[in-house]
Design a protein that fits this description.
The chain has 200 residues and is α+β, with helices and mostly antiparallel strands. The chain is built from three helices and 14 strands. The relative contact order is 0.16.
Length: 200
């Protein structure tokens, strides 16, 4: 009795198709730089947001930003964290520019002008916007010295407390300062924390 060959089943490979990625919709509008009175950036941006709602222009003016970064200042021997404006006197507005949106921004209290060529506002590039936004997202606060190179200061803490010296270098990133102190008639550099030094 001869063996009969068993029929071979053809297994078809089932291919699962990955759905195409949904393209991300780019944000509406372009970014424009708007000049404000110095020190009125927050007031002007708040006033503009209110005007956008009141004038029903949310479909033309989408976002208002005051570019800031976190800093740490030293006052009276204490660290204080606050926000520092990156571009004092300027705010950023993402908008579709036309007569209505231009007028809404331009007539906002505290706003003095658009930045651009002549009377025509000029949008800033996406690369510039990305750089500004990334800079704003940096979480580590930066120190900001209240004294300058060459300034006479007093050391208020550490082994050289009550010594007077002259600021040689300032390291804002790490909150350090190098002070030249006169020891035995010779100027000796001493590295200190901002908290260890005060203005005269």
């Amino acid at each position: 009795m001869s063996d009969q060959a068993q029929p071979t089943e053809n297994k078809q490979e089932v291919k699962t198709e990955t759905p195409p990625a949904t393209p991300t919709t780019p944000p509406k509008g372009r970014w424009f730089v708007v000049h404000t009175y110095s020190g009125h950036e927050n007031k002007a941006s708040a006033a503009l947001r209110q005007r956008v709602d009141a004038m029903r222009l949310t479909h033309k003016i989408f976002e208002v930003v005051v570019p800031t970064r976190n800093i740490v200042t030293v006052k009276h021997g204490k660290k204080e964290e606050s926000k520092e404006k990156i571009f004092p006197g300027y705010i950023l507005v993402r908008m579709d520019l036309d007569d209505d949106s231009w007028l809404a921004v331009r007539t906002t209290p505290g706003v003095t002008a658009f930045v651009g060529m002549g009377n025509k506002p000029t949008a800033i590039s996406d690369k510039e916007v990305e750089a500004i936004m990334q800079f704003m997202k940096i979480q580590a606060p930066k120190f900001k010295a209240k004294f300058s190179v060459g300034e006479a200061v007093k050391i208020i803490d550490g082994p050289f407390a009550d010594f007077l010296g002259t600021v040689e270098t300032i390291d804002d990133a790490h909150g350090k300062v190098r002070v030249l102190v006169s020891i035995f008639g010779r100027e000796t550099p001493v590295e200190l924390d901002f908290l260890q030094v005060s203005k005269l």
